[in-house]
Amino acid sequence: MVFHYIPPRKRPDGAARIASRPGILLLNLGTPDDTGYRSVRRYLSEFLSDRRVIEGSPVLWQPILQGIVLTVRPGKSGKAYERIWDKARNESPLRGYTRSQSEALAQRFAAEDVPVTWAMRYGKPSVAVGLKELMEHGCDRILVMPLYPQYSATTTATANDQLFRVLMKVRNQPAIRTLPAFPDHPAYIDALAASIQDGVAHLPTPPQMIVVSFHGLPQEYVDKGDSYQADCIRTMEALRAKLGMTAETLVLTFQSRFGPTKWLEPYTAPFVEALPEKGVKNIAVITPGFMADCIETLDEIGNEVRDEFLAKGGETFTLIPCLNDSPACIDLLEQLARQELSGWL
Ligand SMILES: C=CC1=C(C)c2cc3[nH]c(cc4nc(cc5[nH]c(cc1n2)c(C)c5CCC(=O)O)C(CCC(=O)O)=C4C)c(C)c3C=C
Ligand SMILES: [Fe+2]
Ligand SMILES: [Fe+2]
C-alpha cells in the first residue's frame, strides 16, 4: 500500500490547512476620491510620479510635476470629473463600474465559494486593502486581473508591480497568478462587436464611419519595446474581421495625449474634427481599451471631441458605451477568470 503524504498548507494567518482557496482581485487604474482640487491633485501626483508612466529622469520631471502640472491640471481635471461624476453615489464612473463588475463576477463564482474583490492601482481602495480582504477570507491562491485588454508597461506592468510591492511585506504569501492582456480573446471581440451593432442599430442616420479610439502612449515607449500598439492592432484586426469592416470604415485612433512629445498617431481629436470637411458628418466612436467608462471616454470623447465635431459641421455623433457591467462584460470576465484559474478550482 502506498501512502501519499500531503503536507498541510499554511494559511496566510499562520494556521495549518488542508484545502486551498482561490480568490479573484480585479485591478483598475484609479480615480480621485472627489472632484476637489486637493483630491485630484493627490491622485494625479501619485499617478504621474509612477516611473512606469513617466519614464524620464525624476530629477527633471518632479520639479515640472510639482511646480507646474500639479498647480494647473487638478483644477482643469476636477471640472472634467465634475461633469461626469456619479452624484448619487458620490464616486467616479470608473470606480462604480469596477465595483459592479466585481459584484457581478462574485455572483458567477458564488457556488464555488471563490471570493471576488476589486482595487485600484492609484487611490482607493488600494491594492493592499484588496489583497488583505482576500487573505482574511483564507485565500491562499489569488488570481489578479488587471483590467487592460491591451498590454502596456504603463498599465498592466505597474498594476503587477504594485501587487508584488505589497506582497513584499507579507509573511505568508498567497500563490499568485496574473491575467495577461486579452486583445483578441473571442469573448472580448464578440462583446465589442455586439456593442457596436447595438449602438448603431436604431440610429435614424447610420454612421458613415466608426472611430475606434484607444488611450495613447508616447511613441518612445513603443520604440523601446512596449507591445501596446501591436495589441491595439490585434484588437482592430479581430474586430474588423468579425464585423466584415475595413480600415476605412472602422478606423484606429489614439486619444488623451499628455505633454509635448510625440504619441501614437493618428490623434483622435484632430482626426475627428477634420471629418465633416471631408463629407463624413455622421460617426460613431467606441473606446475598447477601457473596460469601463471614465473621464477619458465620457468627457474627453463624449463632451470635448463631440462638441468640436459638431462645431466643425458634423451632424450626428454617437458614443458607444464601454463594456461596463453589461452581461457580455461579465461573461468575458468569467471566461478569462476560469481560463486562468485552471487547476485551482
Ligand atoms: C504620461 C501620461 C499617461 C500615460 C502614459 C497614460 C497611459 C494610459 N492610461 C490609461 C487609462 C486611463 N487613463 C486615465 C486618466 C489619465 N491618464 C493620464 C495620463 C497618462 N495615461 C492622466 C493625466 C489621466 C487623468 C485624467 C486627466 O487629468 O485628464 C483613465 C481615467 C481615470 C478616471 O478616473 O476616469 C484611464 C482609465 C491607459 C489604458 C494607458 C495606456 C495605454
Ligand atoms: Fe491615462
Ligand atoms: Fe484626458
TrEMBL record:
It comes from Acetobacter cibinongensis. GO terms for cellular component: cytoplasm. HAMAP family: Ferrochelatase. Keywords: Cytoplasm, Heme biosynthesis, Iron, Lyase, Metal-binding, Porphyrin biosynthesis. It is found in: Cytoplasm. Pathway: Porphyrin-containing compound metabolism; protoheme biosynthesis; protoheme from protoporphyrin-IX: step 1/1. Its main location: cytoplasm. Fe(2+) binds at residues 215, 296. PANTHER family: FERROCHELATASE, FERROCHELATASE, MITOCHONDRIAL. GO terms for molecular function: ferrochelatase activity; metal ion binding. Belongs to the ferrochelatase family. InterPro entries: Ferrochelatase, Ferrochelatase_AS, Ferrochelatase_C, Ferrochelatase_N. It is an enzyme of class 4 (lyase). Catalyzes the ferrous insertion into protoporphyrin IX. This is Ferrochelatase.
